[in-house]
Automatic annotation (TrEMBL):
Keywords: Cytoplasm, Protein biosynthesis. Signal peptide: none annotated. The lineage of its organism: Bacteria, Pseudomonadati, Bacteroidota, Chitinophagia, Chitinophagales. InterPro entries: Ribosome_recyc_fac, Ribosome_recyc_fac_dom, RRF_sf. NCBIfam families: frr. Pfam families: RRF. Transmembrane segments: none annotated. It comes from Chitinophaga alhagiae. PANTHER family: MITOCHONDRIAL RIBOSOME RECYCLING FACTOR PSEUDO 1 (PTHR20982:SF3), RIBOSOME RECYCLING FACTOR (PTHR20982). This is Ribosome-recycling factor.
Amino acid sequence: MQDELNLILDDAKDSMQKAISHLEVELTKIRAGKANPQIVDGIMVDYYGAPTALNQVANISVADARTLTIQPWEKNMLQPIERAIIASNIGLNPQNDGVIIRLFLPPLTEERRKELVKKVNGEGEHAKVAIRNIRRDAIEAIKKLQKDGLSEDTAKDAEAETQQLTDKFIAAVDKHCAAKDKEIMAI
């Protein structure tokens, strides 16, 4: 019984950690005023008929604080990369000079900053919902073990531990979102 209980708690902790990791990845994709190659992560380019990640067909680098450069490994990939960036709807217009594509990140307006903060808070809320769902599943599994013979005190202790885990991970979500909000609102 105790082994099964430990397994439930470990699974819950691992799943909550994965929710935090996912949140971190999503937050890096939200631009905060300075150029970051992760802004273009997830953009798929039509590479000879096969959708391929942009970083698999080109070198992406930061030229300066507000400029990303994308240098395709094959010159004939300039047009497909340009089309993919426009289609991705990340709010940036590619500048193609025939050799390299430049993405200029305009300075963020106050209105755009507020939109980005809303987006950050939305991602944070998704992470919190995921963590709460993991808590619910863990508590249901603990109640099932209790029906199978686990003592009521042990079940209550396990539920309390699950709640403590949940509180800890939700605090981590709040911390990540607050740091990203501060980064976005910094001029």
